[in-house]
Amino acid sequence: MARLIMFCIFALIVLSAAIMSVMTKRIMRAATYLLFVLLGIAGLYFVMGYTYLGTAQISVYAGGITMLYIFAIRLVGKQSLQGLVENFKKSSMLSGILASLAGLATVLFVVFKNNVIDLCVTMNGAENKELPMQKIGEALLSTDVNGYILPFEFISVFLLACIIGGVMMARKEEVATNSDKEDK
């Protein structure tokens, strides 16, 4: 019963911080709320008994990735972020809602097609054993069909490309702003 209460508390933290991260207009606050989301997910891992994943979540994502985002935000510069307000059009809001509903439908389809709920119920009765560290390490560094090394590499290259693109866009705006000031 205590595990269920802790799970609900961490789930509430994750959901509220995620909503606040999306709804805030200040980018540093969004990064801070993202930190709370990642720490809440680590708490969920600990409640479920996955100490390795919880520790990896704190060290890699809550520590490393959040600091990388904050570093990239600070690198972009204050002038390019000031007054940055998105004007939402009805068409873009409608397309966002439709994309969200399509994503939800896809997740529900996968959950029900693979009988995830039945699988969770049968596994809940089984003894909660943590996998040995060696098996987790082999799965993370494996290049086999069920290996995770290729997705990790793609994600790291994608994050690097996003940061470089953000810096390039900020520098172009800064150059354009400086040239506009010189013209006047």
What labels describe this entry?
184 residues, mainly alpha
Rg result: 21 Å
Helix content: over 70%
Number of strands: 0
Give the class from helix and strand content and strand pairing.
Answer: mainly alpha
What is the terminal-to-terminal distance? 68 Å
Beta-sheet strand percentage? under 5%
Give the SSE order as H and E letters: HHHHHHHH
Mean pLDDT: 79
Largest sheet: none
What does this protein structure show overall?
By secondary structure, the chain is an all-alpha fold. It is 82% helix and 0% strand. It has eight helices and no strands. The protein has helices at residues 2-23, 27-48, 51-76, 78-81, 90-113, 116-125, 133-140, 149-183. The longest helix has 35 residues, at 149-183. The protein is globular, with a radius of gyration of 21 Å. The model has no long low-confidence stretch (mean pLDDT 79).
Write a concise synopsis of the structure shown.
The protein has 184 residues and is mainly α. The chain contains 8 helices and no strands.
Explain the layout of strands and helices.
Layout: H1 2-23, H2 27-48, H3 51-76, H4 78-81, H5 90-113, H6 116-125, H7 133-140, H8 149-183
